[in-house]
């Protein structure tokens, strides 16, 4: 394994991505707890991330001496380079000429992290982002590559097995950056690159068995990728010690509940409790239009319903959750200030505390695309594995102004037609998320010889890599026209369709 020490860079997670792509296992730990992680992990190598601080600041984060004494290869990136130099007796100065963006690197000398494209005499495009720069390298190091703004762009001490670069090899603006990581983790550190999903599956199954023994586990199933993969994996590990609880709040998409029940109960034979709680949820939501209030009602009812059903199952000691790695990484924050809540997303938070259960989280080491790969490895159908994200509060937050059964039914039909057209035209996998929204506005139309006065349906589709930022998806007009016609003809209650061309920011993906 490789230990990635986080100094707070925005792109630290990308280092982990690059290593995972090489089938190398790694963990990210904040600089302040890296020494204890070192003991637990016994890694083959250490990567020091970039970070926003200046090593010249009084309270600048520093490299724990234990890491330097560990006698494993070390690679410093940007702030990691500067911190390494300071720790080993070099010098760093506040850069008068801070460097941000593309730069050209000249490779001057051979070095064991260089190979292939990175050959002596060649130029490489790299991404720089630094204010300070190293002005004097520690004893035993030599400069092996330079750039106009960073004369000490890559430094190396082959004997001590330490390398450091001023730029960011993990970002895609450094096109050949992955090769540097490969040379470091495979050739230098000796990682074998055999961390595959098949291996992970076996390892995870063993861990689940060790953790739960013969105790009972309950798992909240939503039909989304994460909880589906977690449930199938845990069932493979402990069989019928697992019971899944599927709380159906009546705000799911068309036929979604049946699909979940068919797959998990009938196909996988997983004990599944299907709670039809639509009346309760819709009852309490009646007359409520504030988005946050709707979320709170749904969150609370979800916990209450789940808790009640879990008690009926009886004797469970563990709660399974599909927590992913990005939720787990303890973030390093230097700003300290509170961040603004735009939406209160995690509506199932609070379950484990309330229920006094221990957690089983077999996906907590994985990124989303790795969860999908594991799902395929476990034989989950593509229609589940490749699913667009769907929010916990479901259609409630797609009916601005207030939701009831009638509106949810109208929206469900329109949404199903829209997704059907997207699938048929082969665009589903190009889109991060696509859905219909039912607006609380009626407009006038004419159908046949009659006047209509019905609701407006808005269609939304976005591309994104992580849901944090998004662009609206560019359908062609024929597609939109065809889909609008079908929705208006087939769904009673809608007589006008519009397409949302807002990006995020300034919009959000959902309308509420
Ligand atoms: P926004 O609308 O904030 O959405 O741009 C970003 C991602 O989060 C999903 N989302 C939610 N997921 N509960 C959830 O579980 C929520 O209350 C919620 N609100 C938004 C949204 O679908 C998108 O994938």
From TrEMBL:
Sequence ranges assigned to domain GMPS ATP-PPase in this UniProt record: 195-387
Entry annotated with the keyword Flavoprotein: no
Pathway given in the UniProt record: Purine metabolism; GMP biosynthesis; GMP from XMP (L-Gln route): step 1/1
EC number(s) stated in the UniProt entry for this protein: 6.3.5.2
Keywords of the record: ATP-binding, Glutamine amidotransferase, GMP biosynthesis, Ligase, Nucleotide-binding, Purine biosynthesis
EC category name: ligase
Keyword Calcium: no
Binding site for ATP: 222-228
Reactions the enzyme catalyzes: XMP + L-glutamine + ATP + H2O = GMP + L-glutamate + AMP + diphosphate + 2 H(+)
Active site: 78, 168, 170
Its job: Catalyzes the synthesis of GMP from XMP.
Quaternary organization: Homodimer.
Designated name of the protein: GMP synthase [glutamine-hydrolyzing]
Species annotation: Maritalea porphyrae
Phylogenetic classification of the source organism: Bacteria, Pseudomonadati, Pseudomonadota, Alphaproteobacteria, Hyphomicrobiales
Gene that this sequence comes from: guaA
């Amino acid at each position: 394994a490789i230990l990635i020490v986080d100094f707070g860079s925005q792109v630290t997670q990308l280092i982990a991505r690059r290593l995972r792509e090489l089938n190398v296992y790694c963990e990210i730990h904040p600089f302040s707890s890296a020494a204890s992680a070192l003991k637990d992990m016994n890694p083959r190598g250490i990567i020091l991330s970039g970070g926003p601080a200046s090593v010249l600041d009084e309270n600048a984060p520093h490299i724990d001496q234990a890491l330097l004494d560990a006698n494993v290869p070390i690679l410093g990136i940007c702030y990691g380079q500067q911190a390494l130099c300071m720790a080993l007796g070099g010098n760093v100065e506040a850069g008068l000429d801070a460097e941000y963006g593309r730069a050209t690197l000249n490779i001057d000398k051979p070095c064991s992290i260089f190979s292939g494209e990175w050959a002596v005499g060649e130029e490489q495009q790299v991404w720089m982002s630094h204010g300070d720069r190293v002005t004097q390298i520690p004893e035993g190091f030599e400069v092996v590559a330079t750039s106009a703004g960073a004369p000490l762009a890559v430094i190396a001490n082959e004997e001590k097995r330490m390398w450091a670069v001023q730029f960011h090899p993990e970002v895609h603006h450094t096109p050949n950056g992955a090769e540097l990581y490969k040379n470091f983790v495979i050739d230098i550190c000796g990682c074998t690159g055999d961390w595959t999903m098949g291996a992970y599956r076996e390892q995870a199954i063993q861990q689940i068995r060790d953790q739960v023994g013969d105790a009972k586990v309950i798992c909240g199933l939503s039909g989304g990728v994460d909880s589906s993969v977690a449930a199938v994996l845990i069932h493979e590990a402990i069989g019928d010690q697992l019971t899944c609880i599927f709380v159906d709040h009546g705000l799911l998409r068309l036929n979604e509940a049946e699909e979940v029940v068919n797959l998990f109960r009938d196909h996988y034979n997983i004990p599944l409790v299907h709670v039809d709680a639509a009346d309760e949820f819709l009852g309490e939501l009646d007359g409520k239009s504030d988005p946050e209030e709707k979320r709170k009602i749904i969150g609370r009812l979800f916990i209450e319903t789940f808790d009640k059903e879990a008690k009926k199952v009886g004797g469970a000691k563990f709660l399974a959750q599909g927590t992913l790695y990005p939720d787990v990484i303890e973030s390093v924050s230097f700003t300290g200030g509170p961040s603004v809540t735009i939406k209160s997303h995690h509506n199932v938070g609070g379950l484990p505390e309330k229920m006094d259960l221990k957690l089983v989280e077999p996906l907590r080491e994985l990124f989303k695309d790795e969860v999908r790969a594991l799902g395929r490895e476990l034989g989950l159908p593509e229609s589940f594995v490749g699913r667009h994200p769907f929010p916990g509060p479901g259609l409630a937050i797609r009916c601005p102004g207030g939701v009831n059964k009638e509106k949810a039914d109208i929206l469900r039909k329109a949404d199903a037609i829209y997704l059907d057209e997207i699938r048929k035209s082969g665009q589903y996998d190009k889109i991060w998320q696509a859905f219909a929204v039912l607006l609380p506005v009626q407009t006038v139309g004419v159908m046949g010889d009659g006047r209509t006065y019905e609701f407006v349906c808005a269609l939304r589709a976005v591309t994104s890599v992580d849901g944090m930022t998004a662009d609206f998806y560019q359908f062609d007009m024929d597609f939109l026209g065809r889909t609008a016609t079908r929705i208006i003809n087939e769904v009673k209650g809608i007589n006008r369709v519009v397409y949302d061309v807002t990006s995020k920011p300034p919009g959000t993906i959902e309308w509420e």
